[in-house]
Amino acid sequence: MNQAYLSSPLVAFWAAQRNARRRSAVRCVVLLPPKGKRGFLNGIFHTEKQHLMKRTLPLLAALLFLSSGSFAQSKGVFVSDAVVSVAQQAKVDYKGLVRKASAKDTKALADLFEFTRIVEGAALTDHVRTCLELIPLVGDEAYAKTLESRSAGLKAYLLKHMGAAQQKAQKEALKKPIGEWAPYTWEALNGREVNLAPKAAAGQPSPTTAPDAAQLKPANDQHPPAQPGTLTPPAPDASKGNRLTPPGGRRGN
User: Fold this and answer.
1) Where are the domains of the chain?
2) Extended strands (E) in the chain
3) Residue 46 has what pLDDT?
4) Inter-helix orientation angle 106-115/140-148, to 10°
5) How many whole angstroms separate alpha carbon 5 and alpha carbon 247?
6) For the purposes of burial, counting CB atoms within 10 Å of the CB of 138, is it exposed (0-12), middle (13-18) or buried (19 or more)?
7) pLDDT tens digit string along 57-109?
8) What integer pLDDT is reported at residue 232 of this predicted model?
9) How many CB atoms within 10 Å of residue 106?
10) C-alpha span between 26 and 51 (Å, rounded)
């Protein structure tokens, strides 16, 4: 072949394009079983390492993301990635606070309430949803007393966004009016004093219940009811002494 033709720029460009296509093409290698052995043909397909890594790494990253989910879970409590991102910028261990609050740590719960001041937008609704889902875990009474100690403005701010958080909650029980399943928390959210009434023992009157009028009478004024067919003696006359004068009798000198 003519040497000048082989060294022309057009041929060089065509050769470079051909080599590039060969490198980018996926080559398949079929391994045949050794001679003399019977059985079905077993073929193992291999691709180049570079192409394999380029294809599998994004897939593995996607699988890891899906396995972790778009939000984290701590004892079944919703935690948004957007809120965690804001917390990281503020150097707050948000997931740690949620985990401690789920274990009835009231200090961590108070820190979560105060964190409400630095979030906004969709992240704010997600954060309030997290606070909402903590009520059954912490308990209505402990949750309400911790919330009661916060400022009036913060409680009103939480109450304002609590409805949107309830709409996004997945548990149907949390979508019911808070006053039905967490009455103390509802009182605290509305800025009212939380009075935890003591539980009355069985058979004992409640401290808030007024006692019966019969229970207030002295023991001397309580007489058993008269039996049928018996005469009830008249009440003694205080002006004539304490003795009873029998009917028809005469008082002594």
Assistant:
1) 14-65, 71-189
2) 71-74, 77-80
3) 47
4) 50
5) 159
6) buried
7) 666 665 554 444 334 444 589 999 999 999 999 999 999 999 999 999 999 99
8) 54
9) 16
10) 8
